[in-house]
Write a structure and sequence with these properties.
By secondary structure, the chain is of the alpha+beta class. It has a domain of about 160 residues. It is built from ten helices and 16 strands. The strands form six sheets. The protein has a five-stranded mixed β-sheet with strand order 1-5-12-15-16, sandwiched between helices. Strands 4-10-6 form a three-stranded antiparallel β-sheet, covered by helices on one side. Strands 2-11 form a two-stranded antiparallel sheet.
Length: about 325
């Protein structure tokens, strides 16, 4: 497996999604059929004869149903300041990016607390899809009306490229995935609800695709010491007096957990000269002064020194990025 840069990966959250995370420290493991890429976990099936498109559609539907509720993915990125991802996944820069320490056993362990298989892997961006032979479906008795075979489990345990191969069009995301087996294949009564209807080849119905039901995803508890830093979006704040209300809510939730001083709080800003984003520690008043307007700087009492986001001893001065 490729090395994770600095041991950190980043999750992009909408504002409401981030507040849900902060209240319970839980993350969602979502089945691939609910993702926004229509080619997600859709292989090229080898050994099919030309003209067998109907069979191809049947097998794709069987594979998608088989994954649903049994395989979940938690997706992260190497980059906390990607302009497109802030626009796509963070309510147009109103959300938050969370920095996770992926050396923590929550991410690095090869099995979950209940003994089910999981792995963290970097997504590979290729022109061609991963392949899966027709024999795999035949051996595991996977058909349109029979999704109870163990073919999905073989793919998870072998860490098949199907789980982490995407088109180069998505390469800007620099994605990593924590892929997790969600149920014991022998427990036929513990399957989570699935979509009732499948579109050609792969996708679930419209309502499910827009917002998977809570019962259709796995919520997993994240250890508090996994979280290293937060990046508050450039449009995340609404000022009332000397402190933005969103920052107040974030601080309140962190304080209740008694971890406010253990997590670095960064603020993201739009670069004044380039098409890019900057991030600075809210404790560093000089860096704040260099990157915000004088009016905004003056709106904070005591030149930001009074802001309650304190993270231990002062950090050394950081050069201003241009």
């Amino acid at each position: 497996m490729a090395a994770v840069p600095n041991g950190s990966l980043y999750k992009y959250f909408s504002k409401s999604g981030f507040l849900r995370f902060l209240r319970g420290f839980t993350v969602r493991f979502t089945p691939p059929c609910a993702f926004n890429d229509p080619f997600e976990a859709v292989p090229t099936i080898t050994e099919l004869l030309s003209g067998e498109s109907f069979i191809w559609d049947q097998l794709q539907a069987a594979l998608a149903i088989s994954f649903g509720g049994k395989v979940g993915m938690f997706c992260l990125s190497e980059d906390p300041l990607n302009l497109l991802m802030w626009g796509h996944y963070c309510n147009a820069h109103q959300g938050v990016v969370v920095e996770f320490d992926v050396t923590n056993p929550f991410f690095s362990a090869r099995s979950t607390a209940s003994g089910l298989h999981q792995y963290l892997r970097k997504v590979e961006y290729r022109e061609h899809r991963a392949t899966l032979p027709l024999e795999h479906f035949q051996k595991n008795k996977m058909g349109l009306l029979n999704d109870h075979g163990s073919g999905w489990l073989d793919l998870v345990r072998s860490e098949h490229p199907l789980m982490f191969t995407k088109s180069p069009d998505w390469s800007y995301e620099r994605e990593w995935r924590l892929v997790r087996q969600l149920v014991d294949s022998r427990d036929s009564f513990r399957k989570k609800p699935k979509a009732a209807r499948m579109f050609t080849g792969h996708h679930v119905d419209d309502d499910y695709a827009r917002d998977p039901a809570p019962a259709s995803v796995e919520l997993a508890q994240v250890p508090e010491d996994c979280v290293k830093a937060l990046y508050l979006g450039a449009k995340s704040t609404t000022y009332t007096g000397n402190m933005p209300t969103f920052e107040e809510e974030v601080w309140s939730l962190l304080s209740k957990r008694r971890i406010a001083n253990k997590i670095l709080i960064n603020k993201v800003r739009f670069d004044r000269e380039r098409f890019g984003l900057l991030a600075f520690d809210l404790q560093d008043s000089e860096q704040v002064r260099a990157n915000v307007s004088e009016l905004e700087f003056a709106s904070r009492s005591n030149n930001f020194e009074g802001i309650p986001f304190r993270n231990g001893p002062p950090r050394p001065p950081q050069p201003t990025r241009r």
